[in-house]
Structures are given as structure tokens and as C-alpha cells.
Request: fold
Amino acid sequence: MSENREYKSDVFSMLMQYPENALQVFNALNGTNYTDPGLVEMCTLAKGISLSVRNDASFIIDMDLSIYEHQSTYNPNMPLRSLIYLGDVIRPLVKGRDLYGSKRIMIPTPHMVVFYNGTKDCPEKEVQRLSDSYAHDGEPEVELICVMYNINSGNNEDFLSECSVLREYMCFVNKVRENEDAESE
Reply:
């Protein structure tokens, strides 16, 4: 039986729908100690760049916008996808505000994070840049950084020890993989 990647993304998205889970992951990533899930303002997109593709989780805590993606295959296009997601998340936040006025409109500071748990060997942490996809070299006038964390066993253990949500999620993924391997024998 071939691996069904969708279950991983669906379970990840379901877990991140709960503000207390999003808060725990945020705290583990940022070394913060927020305790009130009421501080989490969920803003996950229903539809992203197509009818079937959406970002897995996006939320605001204290004017920090976190856009989290789960990937079970290595994807160097995450900065480009994140740029599209960012526009879709920011659009309703500025709706009705005077974008042509003389007063600056403040927006949450974006942080793009990818949690990788595929079977290809990947580093514990990888910084991906939108400018890596630009056709021409030079100083980019637009940059977007995505940080990919490998959450497979043996990777980012300090972070995962602080984050039971992702640690338990990976236990689930590993069990499914074991069952798929047993079925294929």
C-alpha cells in the first residue's frame, strides 16, 4: 500500500485548530510561556491557492502571525506558497482600512514555519528563501523566509520535548507507517 500523505496533513490541521495546541507549538518554537489560549486568534484559510490546497494553520498571538505548514514530502517551493498564504491571511486583516491614506497600517509580524516528517533525509532545520526561486541574481526587493523543522525521530528533540502535541502526532505517524509497512509485506 502506498503511503497516503493526506492523513498526515489532515490530522496536523485538525490538531492546530485548537488554540491550546497552537499555543503550545508557538511556545516551544519561540521560547515563550503564554498560558491563555484565549490570546490565540485563529485565521486559518478555508481555501488557499486552489480549491484543494490550504495552509494548515495560521494564527495571531500578540501581533505575531504564525503560518504553519506540515509537509511529508520535501518541498523547496514553500516560500512561494507561503507568500500566497500570507497575502490571503493579511487581506481580511486590512479590509476596510485606508491603504491609500497617510497613516501607516500596522500588520502582525509574519513567521512561516514548515514541519517536515517525510521519509527523505533532511536536516533538522533548514532556512528556505523566496529569493532562491528568483530567475535573476541580485539584491531582492521582496524576501520571504520559511524555516523548515524536521520532526522525525532523532531530530529537534529539545523542541519536541517541549511540545507534546507534535511529539504525540509523530507517534501517530510512526504507527501508521509501521502498519503500512506490515500490510505491504
Remarks:
- Helices lie at 5-16, 19-30, 78-94, 157-161, 164-184.
- The beta strands are 41-42, 57-61, 64-71, 109-116, 125-129, 145-150.
- The longest strand covers residues 64-71.
- Confidence is low (pLDDT under 50) at residues 48-53.
